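Board notes (copied after class):
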Amino acid sequence: MTQCDIKKLIDTDKEFSEWMLTFLFEQLNALYTKEVIFGTYNATKRFEAFVLNRSDIYKSVPAKYLAQYLNIAPETLSRIQSAIIKNDLK
């Protein structure tokens, strides 16, 4: 769909307009949350927030991509995971 088509739908279809507004607010909230997490949390907290919020995909994403997404070195991610496992076993 082109931007022009979407604008026409928003102008002519009230349900689509309401859906689009809801969708945009959800995306804005997700972006804000991500900015807060990445702007203020250290590497460990970023990892914990990711696992808490995206546990559904945590196991299926290779560690190198997860580290890249979290903006940390793969070695750092490995150390964080090891430390968390050690703490959970205590």
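Comment from the instructor: Residues 33 and 78 are 25 Å apart (CA to CA). The chain has a mean pLDDT of 90.
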